[in-house]
Amino acid sequence: QVQLQESGPGLVNPSQTLSLTCTVSGCSITTNYYYWIWIRQPPGKGLEWIGAINTRGVTFYSPFLMSRASIARNTSKNQVILQLTSVTPEDTARYYCGGGAAYAYWGQGTQVTVSS
Question: I need a labelling partner for 73 at 20 to 30 A (CA). Which of 4, 5, 34, 64 fits?
Answer without folding.
Answer: 64
